[in-house]
UniProtKB/TrEMBL annotation:
<feature type="domain" description="BRCT">
    <location>
        <begin position="340"/>
        <end position="423"/>
    </location>
</feature>
<feature type="domain" description="BRCT">
    <location>
        <begin position="5"/>
        <end position="103"/>
    </location>
</feature>
<dbReference type="GO" id="GO:0035361">
    <property type="term" value="C:Cul8-RING ubiquitin ligase complex"/>
</dbReference>
<feature type="region of interest" description="Disordered">
    <location>
        <begin position="216"/>
        <end position="235"/>
    </location>
</feature>
<feature type="region of interest" description="Disordered">
    <location>
        <begin position="573"/>
        <end position="611"/>
    </location>
</feature>
<feature type="region of interest" description="Disordered">
    <location>
        <begin position="837"/>
        <end position="856"/>
    </location>
</feature>
<dbReference type="GO" id="GO:1990683">
    <property type="term" value="P:DNA double-strand break attachment to nuclear envelope"/>
</dbReference>
<dbReference type="InterPro" id="IPR001357">
    <property type="entry name" value="BRCT_dom"/>
</dbReference>
<dbReference type="GO" id="GO:0005634">
    <property type="term" value="C:nucleus"/>
</dbReference>
<dbReference type="InterPro" id="IPR036420">
    <property type="entry name" value="BRCT_dom_sf"/>
</dbReference>
<feature type="region of interest" description="Disordered">
    <location>
        <begin position="770"/>
        <end position="791"/>
    </location>
</feature>
<feature type="compositionally biased region" description="Acidic residues">
    <location>
        <begin position="843"/>
        <end position="856"/>
    </location>
</feature>
<feature type="compositionally biased region" description="Polar residues">
    <location>
        <begin position="489"/>
        <end position="500"/>
    </location>
</feature>
<feature type="compositionally biased region" description="Acidic residues">
    <location>
        <begin position="776"/>
        <end position="785"/>
    </location>
</feature>
<feature type="region of interest" description="Disordered">
    <location>
        <begin position="452"/>
        <end position="544"/>
    </location>
</feature>
<dbReference type="Pfam" id="PF16770">
    <property type="entry name" value="RTT107_BRCT_5"/>
</dbReference>
<protein>
    <recommendedName>
        <fullName>BRCT domain-containing protein</fullName>
    </recommendedName>
</protein>
Length: 856
């Protein structure tokens, strides 16, 4: 039993305990009993339930900030703490500082209690200050609460004590704290752990360890293509759905089919949700873009606004997370981040989900993501500084940054300076892909840019659907700017004014006839003021307004600078400088003479290009292969475009393909599925040499040796591809080992180009959900069960020992779902894709007796 002093420690506390997957109901009830025993009041909130009015509570206890009332609690200055806060307060017999127990991920060291060994005093002070600032605690001596000891060797007294007592304390170099604070993220401690830290012994060429990033599961793409398999299972009765008693609205801009929409609604209704088409009644809005009346209304009413990926994440894990927690769980913008449209970004050293996530984030930001690095690139985003791409990028003078630059630019919706040291910091033995996806969206930024109240919204094309009166009111300039515009209009054929006020009939008892001299100045002696002259004055003032608007905007911006405008203006290179419309001025000057008009007309004719006659996919063209030929390749592509040939990289868009011979490249094999016209690369050479569009029929690709080698006819394959219509592998579900030679992405593109489905095989229970998928797959509902591939499951593999270890697991999983397992070489897929006809898998099947003769 608690003593009298302890029993009243929480007497003034009214605590709300929010259950989650990390804080079960049983644990919450025990915690509530402890609070009541010490004089406090406790209220439990089930996952998915609404939190009562937060102002009635003194504290909120939660393992995470992912509950709808978190922002409200912060606004009301109600502390949100972890359950450890209660136990620590009782142990200390006084209420602990809630900041040290905050679940806010921005305080990424909040579970660190550090003590220092034999390190310099200056380093000690810096480390203590940094840890405390990021939510951690400092202890002057070794205690049960200490989690980290920072030291230079294991010979110090504290390090020996930790080793002798076998305490669960990590002994680290000071470099770990330095790297964490520079990045603003908590990274893995292992490379810094004494007595043998990896950062001091590993050479620069030793591969860096990589760990799977769990933060990106279900959050790497803003537009998932399929309903998650786990969402189709009904949750157990003892686990309440995250959609219980929620009202959900699916926006029309999602672009999904009727069948998928019905499937989503079915899952939501099974979870206890209701559907609505009225945003005012909705608790959750699922939309694709940050625009439109529905999006702005829901956001201003503080409703949960997320995209389809966020909805699928809730369905899969049945745990609430805020759509602002992950960047790609929130609707995207059509326009992209200002300043990103001209950027070409390449990635290096990011793999798996982290790479997919960054590729999609680059696309959502409005930039272009290139798979290869060229001198025309502007940025290289890398997970660490050791790679050929990094060396080349630095030689070419490109910006080399980590993913934090991209994430924070997206979160703040503004191009961040690449010169910030945080964006160019790369810890020695850490792959930063491990901490990708931890940046959150800022609601204040979103509100300011995308859904601010109408009285502060600047004129935007999105407001075009409003009424005329609303548009007119929205375009009115500020009072001071308006006064200067009116003064400018008065000096340029404006309506007469008195004392700076416009003349209105209601302000004058009597209308006066303008003076004769003023009428004569207009060149119309016998005319009197009329609605025509008034309208002409307004048009003149409007024109004058448009002319000086850039200068006014620049002046207003300069006035906001520290020190005003007296310290000099903006440079031309400044990214946010308002530029004057020189094109308009040149066009006005060109009207002064007919010579200028003829010059402009000639210039327009010179720039015009012929219509596109063909979309050409090129592979294996030797004149472009090799380092140093990038400029020649770009020049030749522009030349071909001037001849009516558009060079494309996507096999889906090509009408012709050029190759020196029959190749097994990804481009060639993918393009065969679409039945294009195939020509020899001599076609390109002759077109460039003769500067004219040659007839493709004069350059057919003839390669009898390769046809004999691969056992197919190129002409027949093209004809069969047109008949197949990309459905050769329809019904096939083909798995592929992740580290297969050539890369899983290459084989996935080939399979999908022929209508099949490709899935990575990691030795897990990824096959168990196929049976349920097939039951609801309308696309395959008309297929015969005896059709090839229908009752079989395929695994693309090599005959190496590493891959052979996965075979028994694959066979067992296939048999569990009553499928025939087929483990085949990649030649099976390539031969089918190139011949455009099915091949029996038995000829390509791998068995254990083949492994011994193959070296990996």
């Amino acid at each position: 039993m608690a003593s009298d002093g302890e029993s009243k420690l929480l007497e003034q506390c009214n605590i709300c305990i929010i259950c989650s997957k990390d804080l079960s109901r049983d644990t919450a009830e025990q915690l509530a009993a402890t609070i009541s025993q010490h004089g406090g009041e406790a209220t439990l909130v089930e996952p998915g339930d609404a939190v009562p009015e937060v102002t009635q509570f003194s504290h909120l206890v939660s393992h995470t900030i992912d509950f709808p009332a978190y922002d409200t609690a912060c606004d009301a200055l109600i502390p949100v703490v972890k359950p450890q806060w209660v136990n620590t307060s009782l142990a200390k017999r006084k209420l602990a500082n809630p900041r040290q127990y905050s679940p806010d991920p921005r305080l990424f060291l909040n579970d660190v209690v550090v003590t220092c060994g034999d390190i310099p005093e200056g380093d000690k002070d810096a480390i203590i200050g940094g840890v405390v600032a990021k939510g951690g605690l400092y202890s002057p001596r070794i205690s049960a609460m200490v989690t980290h000891l920072v030291d230079l060797t294991t010979d110090s007294d504290k390090a020996r004590l930790v080793h002798a007592r076998k305490l669960p304390i990590k002994v680290l170099l000071p470099h770990w704290f330095d790297d964490c604070l520079k990045l603003g993220r908590r990274i893995d401690e292992r490379p810094y752990t004494l007595p043998d830290p990896e950062i001091l012994r590993a050479g620069p060429d030793v591969p860096i360890r990589w760990q799977e990033n769990k933060d990106l599961v279900g959050a790497s793409s803003p537009e998932p293509s399929k309903l998650p398999s786990r969402a189709k299972s009904v949750h157990s009765e003892d686990q309440r759905s995250v959609f219980h008693e929620k009202c959900v609205m699916l926006s029309t801009d999602l672009g999904i089919g009727v069948h998928l929409r019905e499937s989503i609604e079915t899952v939501l209704k099974q979870g206890g949700a209701t559907m609505t088409t009225d945003v005012n009644h909705a608790d959750m809005l699922i939309c694709r873009y940050r625009e439109g009346f529905v999006y702005r209304t829901a956001s201003r009413l503080n409703k949960e606004v997320g995209n389809l990926a966020w909805l699928y994440h809730l369905m899969t894990f049945n745990t609430y997370t805020s759509p602002l927690r992950r960047l790609l769980h929130y609707p995207i913008s059509r326009a992209g981040i200002p300043g990103f449209q001209d950027l070409k970004i390449s990635l290096s050293n990011y793999i798996g989900e982290a790479r997919i996530y960054l590729e999609n984030l680059i696309a959502a930001s409005g930039a272009e993501c290139t798979k290869t690095l060229k001198q025309e690139n502007t940025h290289l985003i890398t997970a660490h500084g050791n790679s050929e791409k990094c060396s080349a990028a630095r030689e070419w003078g490109l910006q080399v940054v980590n993913h934090l630059w991209l994430e924070e630019s997206y979160a703040k919706w503004r191009l961040q300076p690449a010169s910030d040291p945080r964006y160019s910091h790369f810890p020695l033995r850490t792959n930063l892909g491990e901490v990708a996806g931890q940046t959150r969206l800022d609601r204040d930024v979103l509100e300011h840019i995308f859904f601010s109240s109408e009285d502060t919204v600047p004129p935007s094309p999105r407001r075009a659907m409003q009424s005329k009166d609303q548009n007119t009111a929205a375009m009115q300039p500020p009072a001071e700017t308006k006064r200067r515009i009116e003064n400018a209009a008065e000096t340029t054929h404006g309506t007469p004014q008195a004392n700076g006020k416009s003349r209105r009939p209601s302000e004058h008892k009597k209308l006066q006839t303008p003076a004769r001299s003023r009428l004569m100045s207009e060149g119309k002696e016998n005319d009197t003021p009329s609605s025509t002259s008034s309208r002409r004055s307004k048009e003149t003032a409007t024109a004058r307004l448009h002319d000086i608007a850039p200068d006014i905007a620049l002046y207003e911006k300069e006035m906001k600078r520290v020190g005003g405008v007296i310290y000099g203006g903006r440079r031309k290179s400044d990214e946010d400088r308002v530029r004057e419309n020189h094109k308009k001025r040149r066009s006005v000057e060109a009207q002064d003479g007919s010579d200028g008009e003829h010059a402009n007309e000639a210039k327009r004719q010179k720039k015009s290009r012929p219509p596109i006659a063909m979309h050409l996919l090129i592979t294996g063209y030797q004149k472009w292969v090799g380092k140093g030929n990038e400029k020649k390749e770009d020049a030749d592509k522009r030349h071909l475009r001037d001849l009516g040939i558009m060079v494309v990289q996507d096999a889906r868009k090509c009408t012709h393909i050029a190759a020196p011979s029959i190749l097994r490249t990804t481009k060639f094999v993918n393009a065969l599925a679409y039945g294009p016209t195939i020509v020899h690369t001599d076609f390109i050479t002759d077109c460039l040499k003769k500067d004219e569009l040659m007839d493709p029929a004069d350059f057919p690709l003839v390669d009898q040796a390769s046809e004999k080698k691969f056992g197919f006819s190129l002409a027949k394959s093209t004809a069969k591809a047109k008949a197949n219509k990309n459905k050769l592998l329809r019904g096939y579900r083909i798995h592929c080992v992740e580290d297969i030679r050539g890369g899983i992405d290459a084989f996935k593109s080939i399979i999908e180009a022929n209508g099949g489905e490709c899935l990575p095989f990691r030795g897990r229970l990824g096959l168990a959900n196929q049976a349920r998928r097939e039951e609801s797959d309308d696309e395959d509902s008309d297929m015969d069960d005896n059709q090839p591939g229908r009752n079989e499951v395929f695994l693309l593999s090599s005959a190496g020992p590493k891959h052979a270890r996965l075979w028994p697991r694959f066979r067992q999983l296939a048999l569990d779902i009553k499928k025939t397992p087929r483990i085949v070489r990649v030649d099976w897929l390539l031969d089918m894709a190139m011949s455009q006809e099915p091949h029996p898998p038995e000829e390509y099947e791998l068995t254990e007796d083949m492994v011994e003769d193959v070296d990996e």
